[in-house]
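#struct-help
A.M.: can someone run this one for me? Single chain, 327 residues.
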Amino acid sequence: MKTIDIHTHLLSSDVAFQRSYDKIALRFFAKKFGMDPKALGRDPYGEYTRALVESVRNSQHVEKIVLFGVDDRVDDAGKSLHKDITVCATNEDVATLYRGNEDVIIPFFSINPNRPDALGLIDRYADAGFRGAKFLQNYWGVDTRETRYRPYFDKLSERGLPLIVHVGSESSVHSFKSCESIEMLDHPLEAGVQVICAHMALSYEPRRIFKALSKNPKHFNDEYYILIEMLKRYPNLYADISALLTPVRAKVLRHLSRQSDIHHKLLFGTDFPVPFSMVLNSYDLPYRKRFELSREANPFDRYAKAILEYFPRENPIYTNYTKILGA
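D.P.: on it. Structure tokens below:
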């Protein structure tokens, strides 16, 4: 089985791994993601991009990745209000890494719609070969239900550019909870954009950890079920399974694997470099299988092999990317 990873992050070229979250993740997961911890200390961005490209090139199951950064949080004048030093890679960073790695990278841009020149920037990057857009409106504080953002989505539709929208809980960066809602999909869908709902709209409350990890479908959040129904109703709506191997999301894999009437709308994705554990997880795989999966060195293949336990190689989840990106 070969597929395309529809959801991969480029980190900022200024990345310094100073946050507690990053330090913990690096300590336990750097080697698991093909990175040398000492090299990360000396040259964080260089080691990250080396490991990323090398892991894709060496993967048995992932032949290309859709790669994007995240734009700054800006005000209505386009002035930067906050730039996360980990996730806020620029479109120019993406373009630079894409050059020379065209065989394994499909570039998507990230443009905050609060930028006064946002529509012009869409044209600029589309003309430069970018194939779609990534929204992190919950980090930006952008409520897509506001009518002022409709021209942005009309422009994406006009250019035939798909849009990946984060829906559900966010723990990597500061998030405006009101902008995590599944209603963030409404305006782009109405504009005719091919919309990809990231992470199956899964949410959790850290203060209710046992419920958050429960495999009982009655404990899954309402928006997960709303998304399943929306996937049946909207021909231009898709969803990706990125980050579904994190403990608070892996619990749904068995349930999702049985929703065969929406499998033609699901897309394979990892959310690399979001860390995950094969052994300590909320899915229902036997521990012997968990330990077997944990021995896979390639991070993309480790993710793919776990997903193959729920979605066999003939499942359309691995070929649905052609509906978004073409053959």
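A.M.: thanks! The chain has a mean pLDDT of 94.
D.P.: also worth noting: The first helix runs from residue 20 to 29.
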